[in-house]
TrEMBL record:
<comment type="similarity">
    <text>In the central section; belongs to the CRISPR-associated helicase Cas3 family.</text>
</comment>
<dbReference type="GO" id="GO:0046872">
    <property type="term" value="F:metal ion binding"/>
</dbReference>
<dbReference type="GO" id="GO:0004519">
    <property type="term" value="F:endonuclease activity"/>
</dbReference>
<keyword id="KW-0347">Helicase</keyword>
<keyword id="KW-0051">Antiviral defense</keyword>
<dbReference type="InterPro" id="IPR027417">
    <property type="entry name" value="P-loop_NTPase"/>
</dbReference>
<protein>
    <submittedName>
        <fullName>CRISPR-associated endonuclease/helicase Cas3</fullName>
    </submittedName>
</protein>
<keyword id="KW-0479">Metal-binding</keyword>
<keyword id="KW-0547">Nucleotide-binding</keyword>
<dbReference type="InterPro" id="IPR054712">
    <property type="entry name" value="Cas3-like_dom"/>
</dbReference>
<dbReference type="GO" id="GO:0016787">
    <property type="term" value="F:hydrolase activity"/>
</dbReference>
<dbReference type="InterPro" id="IPR006483">
    <property type="entry name" value="CRISPR-assoc_Cas3_HD"/>
</dbReference>
<dbReference type="InterPro" id="IPR011545">
    <property type="entry name" value="DEAD/DEAH_box_helicase_dom"/>
</dbReference>
<keyword id="KW-0067">ATP-binding</keyword>
<dbReference type="InterPro" id="IPR050079">
    <property type="entry name" value="DEAD_box_RNA_helicase"/>
</dbReference>
<keyword id="KW-0540">Nuclease</keyword>
<keyword id="KW-0378">Hydrolase</keyword>
Length: 871
């Protein structure tokens, strides 16, 4: 199939030919990083989607990543992009709807927080398109996913930094997030040069106003930018109805939103109704947009007036695209006024014939001009300057700087037409073009910072490294609020978890002011909670708990939201609570540090379940990283040894006359057989599994290169006494021999895959609060006691023959820093060494493969032969 035919099938019309820039992008033999500077209306979305699909499916280009991540600056763009992508995939017949086989099809997933983010992370070997805002996507790429559970962070971190093509769309709106995106790509490129990227990851940055100079603010990007291709439209190709439109432009001074509302209403009434599309009003802040909207309400029927900004819940935003943000709703004769903020600047599929816009930085104005006469014809543009009398007033210029507005003001004085052709000619001749497109990010992500973020353990207070400065700057850093009906004097149930449609983004400083005022505690009459991951409960919010990325539950009777105006801190009206979807076992398991919901399924032994995981892990690895398939198979077979730990087994009730009664190797059981009163607080079975692997080496080969071998002389010199090996020692079993045959690096990778397979114990081993409550004088970490005995259990060998892992003593010596006479290197030192060799992005990606295999196997119904083949 030729690309033209492929493109027309994807687009849904054989009457539409691809633009020449789209053809060049798809057929370029060198698939890699790229800049794309294409004016509004010339098919950037369909162009990059087509190029990725062509290379991945038609050319079957292995260097083309299997995930496409669409990173957008504004929430209002997400739903529209999602719809376009789904429709294109359906036309090609390769859309995966979440049921049936995923092979050869593409899933589409929206990452906007909440528990309904889809199963995209369970299929690392299959193609997917992930769509979200820079807040949601960049926070996940930094291993601190906003509105996501802590245990899910590393899985998404690994998958978003490996085997992924990032589309950074409308970068002129991304603020410091743009700098973070190119720093991340520079680090990935560095890792690739050092053979630490098992699968490629690239970035395409695109905007109608993109400037290569923006990427020269960091020494880290010097090599990244060398020879990077730029997709543009050459001057000879700038012709046709999209280039020949006329957009007259004038600038006027005004004092207030009330004055602007009067002018908008007058112009809207006097326009040629038979030829006019909607009137568009774009303000720089949500507060001013709401003010103009409310002023217009006195003169305009509510059904013809719409308000669009970023402080609405997705449930309210869903109707916008169908009702007025689409091409069909912008036909001549449409009687509608849309009041909006910057969310309208990029990618919104609408066109106006009359635009009123507040003076803004030049790049923002160019995008707003692009919302006029989008499909040809003519339009009028009115730029409103509220700061003409005080151009240097910093407060009045917010959220922008006076210098940016001054540069735009000067440029507008030389322009009477702002059509694409006029703007291109103006910018090519303008002497001070750099003044129009300044970029000085307030923060720059450094290499040591992304490496520090690999560790997802909270500090002693439960807090984390603040990454918000790398996502957005100023007051635009958000937390996420959802409203639930909570009876007075009651606490929210632990089972309550938000879905994407419920979450409303709110600036975190204003959320603190709304809920707490100037104090640490909630203001009188307010009831709000944040999730406590350590305890698995909702705890009463305090000002310090309200930080960027946090999810906040607010009692619906406390107000704070209006369906017409969005987040409204002054509103005391009861908020309509949205019924969420039931929480899946996987999401429930991720939500708290000691939750084991994934174990509550049909009866399975540790050996039976582990073999299923091993086969899943091997199959995924063979497609992605075949050289490690044997390690994944072994990791799958041993990952749940720790479920034989007596405290874990005590949770499962067994009838005395059942075949399960005498077994101490049950991995999974139906929910009704779990005794919650016997639930050991803080227990993580994967730590016990990891210690059991250490114990095999300790018992059979203390001088193994992964244990004391390299450190024996140093330990002797330091006077550290090596623990003696029992004199009577049985030879290793077949499964134990597989572990003993590993070299040090493979053994340490095996340890990590086993220990991290739930995302809850990774780089460091710290006691949890429940460990502090033991009064026996023993050392406890994550519910495992130092010196505890793990009973022997059967496991499968690589030939699928049963073999025994013998009873062993669990030694917490690796939890200490430095060297110890029991295991040589401690846990953290081992993993840090592994990170130096393998790389942080690779390590998390391998971890994600293991977790995907475990979760996929946990959803399967298997007939366990050790239980008579029944369930």
């Amino acid at each position: 199939m030729e690309f033209k035919e492929f493109f027309q099938k994807m687009y849904g019309s054989d009457q539409v030919d691809p633009w020449s820039w789209q053809i060049k992008l798809a057929l370029d033999d060198a698939f890699g990083n790229r800049l794309i500077r294409i004016p509004t209306g010339l098919g950037k979305t369909v162009g990059v989607l087509g190029a990725w699909l062509w290379n991945r499916f038609e050319k079957e280009e292995w260097s083309c990543p299997c995930r496409l991540v669409w990173c957008l600056p504004m929430r209002v763009l997400v739903e529209q992009t999602e719809m376009e992508v789904r429709n294109a995939l359906k036309r090609l017949g390769i859309y995966w709807n979440g049921t049936g086989s995923h092979e050869g099809k593409v899933g589409v997933h929206v990452l906007m927080g909440g528990t309904d983010c889809g199963d995209w992370a369970l299929y690392p070997e299959e193609c997917a398109v992930l769509i979200g805002t820079q807040d949601m996507l960049l926070s996940r790429a930094l291993n601190r996913g906003y509105a996501a559970s802590r245990a899910r962070w590393p899985m998404e971190f690994g998958l978003l930094n490996s085997d992924t093509l990032w589309i950074m769309d409308e970068v002129q709106l991304m603020d410091v997030g743009l700098a973070t995106s190119f720093q991340l790509q520079a680090f990935r490129n560095d890792d690739d040069c050092e053979a630490k990227m098992l699968r490629p990851t690239f970035s395409w940055w695109m905007s109608a106003t993109l400037q290569p100079d923006w990427f020269c603010t960091s020494p880290d990007t010097k090599d990244l930018m060398l020879g990077m291709p730029v997709s543009t439209i050459p001057a000879p190709e700038r012709s046709g109805n999209l280039w020949d439109v006329r957009k007259t432009c004038r600038t006027i001074s005004m004092k207030s939103a009330k004055e602007l509302a009067r002018s908008v209403h007058k112009a809207h009434v006097e326009r040629d109704k038979s030829r006019s599309a909607p009137t568009l009003v774009v303000m720089n802040t949500v507060d001013r947009a709401v003010e103009v909207y409310q002023e217009l309400l006195g003169n305009v029927a509510s059904e013809t007036l719409r308000l669009v900004h970023s402080r609405f819940r997705p449930s309210e935003r869903e109707s916008w695209r169908e009702e007025f943000l689409n091409k069909a709703a912008c036909t001549p004769g449409t009687d509608r006024i849309i009041v909006a903020t910057q969310v309208i600047e990029a990618g919104v599929d609408m066109s106006s014939t009359l635009l009123f816009t507040e003076l803004a930085p030049w790049s923002s104005l160019v995008q707003r001009f692009g919302r006029c006469a989008r499909w040809g014809g003519a339009a009028q543009v009115v730029v409103v300057d509220f700061n003409a009398d005080k151009p240097d007033d910093i407060k009045k210029a917010l959220p922008y700087g006076p210098e940016e507005l001054a540069a735009a003001r000067t440029a507008l004085s030389d322009l009477q037409d702002v059509s694409p052709k006029s703007l291109e000619e103006f910018e090519e001749a303008y002497a001070n073009i750099r003044d129009l497109y300044p970029y000085e990010p307030s923060h720059l992500l450094l290499r040591h910072e992304i490496e520090e973020l690999f560790d997802t353990s909270p500090d002693l207070s439960g807090a984390d490294i603040d990454i918000s400065r790398f996502i957005r700057s100023g007051d635009e850093r958000d937390l996420y609020v959802f409203w639930v009906d909570i009876p007075p004097k009651e606490q929210p149930a632990d089972s309550i978890q938000p879905t994407r449609k419920e979450l409303c983004a709110v600036p975190f400083m204003r959320a603190r002011e709304w809920l707490c005022g100037k104090t640490q505690r909630l203001a009188a009459g307010n009831r709000a909670w944040v999730w406590d991951w350590q305890e698995g409960v909702w705890r009463t919010a305090r000002s310090t708990y309200l930080y960027p990325g946090q999810t906040v539950l607010v009692a619906a009777n406390c107000g704070g939201y209006d369906t017409a105006c969005g987040w409204s801190p002054a509103s005391m009206k009861h908020v309509v609570s949205l019924a969420g979807q039931p929480v899946t076992d996987a999401n429930k398991a991720d939500s708290a540090q000691d939750d084991d919901s994934l174990s509550q399924t049909g009866w399975q032994t540790i050996a039976g379940h582990s073999l299923a995981v091993a086969e899943e892990a091997r199959d995924i690895a063979q497609m992605l990283v075949s050289e490690l398939a044997h390690i994944f198979h072994l990791a799958g077979r041993v990952h749940d040894i720790g479920k034989a730990y007596p405290d874990f087994q005590l949770q499962i009730q067994r009838a005395r006359d059942s075949i399960f009664h005498a077994r101490t190797d049950i991995a999974k059981a139906p929910k009704l057989y779990w005794n919650t009163r016997q639930r050991p607080r803080g227990l993580r079975h994967e730590l016990a599994s990891t210690l059991a692997l250490f114990a095999i080496l300790q018992r059979h080969d203390q001088n193994h290169e992964a244990l004391l071998g390299p450190w024996k002389e140093l330990l002797d010199a330091a006077g550290m006494t090596v623990a003696p090996v029992p004199e009577v020692q049985l030879p290793p079993t077949d499964i134990e021999r597989e572990i003993l045959d590993l070299d040090a690096e493979d053994f340490n990778l095996l340890l990590y895959l086993v220990c991290a397979h739930h995302g809850k114990i990774r780089l460091v081993w710290h006691p949890c609060p429940a460990d502090q409550k033991h009064k026996d004088g023993k050392v406890w970490i994550r519910g495992v006691m130092d010196g505890a005995t793990l009973p022997s259990i059967p496991l499968y060998t690589k030939e699928q023959e049963l073999s025994e892992v013998r009873e062993c003593c669990l030694d917490l010596a690796p939890s200490a820093a430095g060297l110890n006479p029991h295991t040589g290197l401690g846990w953290t030192e081992r993993i840090l060494n592994l990170l130096v060799t393998i790389g942080h992005f690779n390590m998390a990606w391998l971890e994600a493969i293991m977790r995907a295999a475990d979760q996929r196997a946990s959803t399967r119904v298997i007939k366990d032969p050790l239980l008579g083949g029944g369930q």
